[in-house]
Design goal:
alpha+beta; Ribosomal Protein L22, Chain A; 2 domains; two-stranded antiparallel ribbon; 7 helices; 5 strands; 16% strand
């Protein structure tokens, strides 16, 4: 009698589709974490040298998070009951070769599925006794690390919400009407300052001083012209008297 199908086993499921890796590479990593506890599986994936281990670790963490959020299960009591990789679509590319030919490049994808379930009571007791003898708790450490990650992410979200609330709204740009009103107000203020008594008196005094200076310059010019004319007349009279004396 056959058992239940892999995709019909009880537990909490998480899946990643169209992962850019071949299914055979993913299966080599999945075979190492199958039937392992959450803590042991996390350690195996953390120290694995294969690139696909990062994607498998994300799927495992997602499955544990789904179990904790949806089914109210503790992360320390979970293990990988089933995990498998199915082939996805293949991206077909080409590379030019000699003599006008082309060789095909097949870029594989896969769908990774991880199912986690809860240990029964007897198995849990045996695991706890074994961990107590060893003096360390692998599952507890992994669950505690996950709790810290969740707490840090929630704190970052809260800080981001507070920053968004306290962020100052930008001041609106002044419209054309506001600019025109400011210009009119400045013009009226300048006119009012120009009509003040002190300003009027100062301007009148300045105008009077300018007129006096102009009149003084004009009178000096006229005096100089009269002096030149009188000097010319005296010189002409002397010349006439000299000429008269010579003729006599």
């Amino acid at each position: 009698m056959t058992g239940p199908k892999t995709n019909e086993r009880p537990g909490t499921l998480a899946q990643a589709k169209y992962v850019r890796s071949s299914a055979s590479k993913a299966r080599e990593v999945l075979n190492q974490i199958r039937n392992k506890s959450y803590g042991e599986a996390s350690e195996i994936l953390a120290f694995s040298e294969r690139q696909i281990s990062k994607d498998v670790s994300k799927v495992l963490d997602s499955a544990v998070a789904n179990a904790a959020h949806n089914d109210n299960l503790m992360a320390e009591d979970l293990f990988v009951s089933a995990c498998y990789a199915d082939e996805g679509m293949t991206l077909k590319r080409g590379r030019p070769r000699a003599r006008g030919r082309s060789t095909s490049i097949l870029k594989r994808t896969c769908h990774i599925t991880v199912i986690v379930s809860q240990y029964d009571e007897a198995t849990l007791e045996a695991l706890r006794e074994r961990e107590a003898i060893r003096g360390r708790s692998v599952s507890g450490n992994a669950a505690e690390a996950r709790r810290r990650r969740v707490q840090r992410s929630r704190e970052r979200e809260q800080v981001g919400e507070i920053e968004d609330e306290t962020e100052e709204t930008p001041e609106p740009e002044p419209t054309v009407e506001d600019q025109a009103a400011e210009i009119v107000a400045a013009t009226e203020k300048a006119l009012a300052e120009g009509d003040a008594p002190g300003t009027t008196e100062d301007s009148a005094t300045k105008d009077t001083a300018d007129e006096d200076a102009v009149e003084t310059e004009d009178s000096a010019t006229e005096d100089a012209a009269e002096t030149e004319d009188s000097a010319d007349e005296d010189s002409d009279a002397k010349k006439k008297s000299e000429n008269t004396g010579e003729e006599v």
